[in-house]
Amino acid sequence: MSVYAVELRDVVKTFHTPEGGTINAVDHVDMQIRHGEFFSMLGSSGCGKTTSLRMIAGFEWPTSGEVFIDGEPQGHKPPFQRKVNTVFQSYALFQHMTVFQNVAFGLEMDKVPPEEIKRRVGEALAMVKLTGLEKRYPRQLSGGQQQRVALARALVKRPKVLLLDEPLGALDLKLRKEMQLELKTLQREVGITFVFVTHDQEEALSMSDRIAVMSYGKVMQVGTPVEIYERPRNKFVADFIGETNLLDGTVRSVDGNSLTVFVPALNAEVRALHQGAFHAGQEVSLSIRPEKIRLVEKPTECANCFPAQVKQVAYIGADTRVIAQVVQAQLRVWEQNMVSTLDPDAYFQQNEQAWALLPPENLLALPVE
Amino acid sequence: MNPHRRSPFVVVMTVLVFLFLYVPIFVLVLYSFNASRTNVTFEGFITAFGPLQMQGSLVVQSPCGPFHWFCDLTRNQEVMTAARNTLTIAFVSTLISTLIGTMAAIALQRHEFKIKPFAQLSLYIPIVIPEIVMGIGILTLFSQVFTWVNTTFNLPPDLRLTLGMGTVIVSHIAFSVPFVTLVVQARLQGFDPSYEEAAMDLGANELVTFWRVTLPMLLPGVLSGALLAFTLSLDDFVITFFTTGPGATTLPIYVYGLLRRIITPQVNALSTVWILIVLAAVFLIQRLENRERA
Amino acid sequence: MLQRLREDKALQGLLLIAPTLLWMIVLLIIPLILTLVVSFGRRAPDGGVIFTFTLDNYIRLLGLQPDCLNPFACFDPLYVSILFRSLSLAFNTTVIVILLAYPLAYFIARAPHERRNTFLFLVLVPLWTNFVIRVYAWMMLLRTQGAINGVLGWLAGLLGIPFTPLEMLYTPGAVLVGMVYEFLPFMILPIYTSLEKIDPSLYEAAADLGANALKTFWRVTLPLSLPGVVAGTILVFVPVMGTFVVSDLLGGKQVILVGNLIQRQFLDARDPTFGSAASLVLMVLTLIVTLFYTRKFGFGKEIVV
Question: CA-to-CA distance for B174 and C24, rounded, in angstroms?
Answer without folding.
Answer: 6
